[in-house]
Design brief:
- The chain is of the alpha/beta class.
- The chain contains nine helices and eleven strands.
- The chain has a single domain, classed as Collagenase (Catalytic Domain) (3-Layer(aba) Sandwich).
- The strands form three sheets. The chain has a six-stranded mixed beta sheet. Strands 5-10-11 form a three-stranded parallel beta sheet.
- Helix 4 crosses helix 6.
- The chain is globular, with a radius of gyration of 19 Å.
- The protein binds zinc ion.
- The site of zinc ion has 6 residues, from helix 6.
Length: 343
């Protein structure tokens, strides 16, 4: 874990906040989480009963609870199976399950909408040509994905990624079973101060299907994760790394996207100051961590993020960094799941 003492230092918080996702409200730190099962735009009552929609959260209360949450590093969104269902549906355990992507070759596919807001123009790039703008933004997406897929000791690797696809509709984010990044899609979650958020749909049973996605094979499996960037606030401008220095009032697109991808992978927020999953965005004109390089593509992440990733997507072949799965320890010792989370 990264040094937790750092989280106790006084800090002048950036004004703007990340939106985020939150599966289980812990310590009352989340403000604005949707009620369980509050999935107004989902189809069908049965889906309401079996799918949790983890929606945007504000974090204003984190100020007041800072001393309470300071000891907690990385954390995950979690789902509690309903053991009243048959074992083949519930998985047979009542322990909370960390939400996660299904990991296998090409299993984590992401698409992004090439529709960009022009009034205001919210994504600033160095290359102003239409083709150049898209290529520059796509490079940011690839580098942000690369931060999470190049952590040693994790089973999430570059081969876990599906092809990065482009789609044209602005409103491409929705409950369709596809992981999508949208830069020009309005949403009611964009309350003042929210720069971006991730909306995740997770299966709390086996056999749940969302849109065109395959039925879930595991409890806690993330079936749809969509990342929204605020498209309509003239005070909220994002810049690619190449354009950031020339636009010091813009927020670093790469840092925000890397953070939101953490939510798409199952992370909740971390109270560790230096962590990518710390819920406050870096100040305008600055970025989180260090820029990725070919030698260190996971540079933007902190050790807290890396440790969390190894827990969530452990590499069973890595004897040095392997972390026992929570599922195993849960069954053996009757759910010390919450305790392990803080190790
Ligand atoms: Zn967040």
């Amino acid at each position: 874990m990264a040094a937790e003492a750092a989280t106790l230092k006084p800090r002048t918080f950036p004004r703007k906040l990340f939106g985020g996702t939150c599966g289980v409200a812990k310590l009352g730190e989340w403000n604005g989480i949707a009620p369980s099962g509050s999935i107004g735009d989902e189809k069908g009552k049965s889906m309401r009963e079996t799918v949790r929609k983890l929606t945007a959260t504000g974090i204003a209360l984190l100020y007041g609870l800072w001393s309470v949450v300071a000891a907690h590093g990385y954390s995950f969104n979690q789902i509690v199976p309903d053991v009243r269902d048959p074992v083949g549906v519930s998985g047979g355990s009542a322990c909370p399950v960390a939400t996660h992507q299904l990991i296998g070759p090409g299993s984590f596919a992401v698409q992004w909408s090439t529709a960009l807001s022009t009034n205001p123009q919210t994504i600033l790039t160095s290359d102003q040509t239409p083709t150049g703008r898209l290529n520059e933004i796509e490079q940011v997406i690839q580098q942000s994905l690369g931060a999470w897929t190049n952590v040693a000791g994790s089973s999430l690797t570059p081969s876990s990624l599906g092809p990065l696809a482009r789609v044209t509709p602005a409103n491409s984010c929705g409950s369709d079973g596809l992981n999508t990044i949208c830069f020009d899609q309005p949403d009611m979650a964009f309350t003042p101060g929210v720069l971006a958020f991730t909306r995740v749909i997770t299966a709390d049973a086996i056999g749940i299907q969302v849109g065109s996605g395959a039925p879930s094979t595991q409890v806690g499996q993330i079936l749809d994760a969509d990342i929204y960037f605020n498209p309509s606030d003239s005070n909220v401008i994002f810049a690619t790394p190449a354009a950031l220095s020339a636009n010091p009032k813009a927020y670093d697109l790469e840092s925000l996207l890397t953070h939101e991808l953490g939510h798409a992978l199952g992370f909740s927020h971390s109270a560790v100051w230096s962590a990518m999953m710390f819920p406050f965005a870096p100040a305008p004109g600055t970025f989180t961590g260090t820029r990725p390089t070919a030698q260190k593509p996971d540079g933007p992440l902190a050790d807290d993020d890396r440790t969390g990733l190894r827990v969530l997507y452990g590499d069973p072949n890595d004897r040095h960094t392997r972390v026992p799965s929570r599922g195993v320890s849960c069954r053996r010792t009757r759910c010390p799941c919450q305790r392990r989370q803080r190790e």
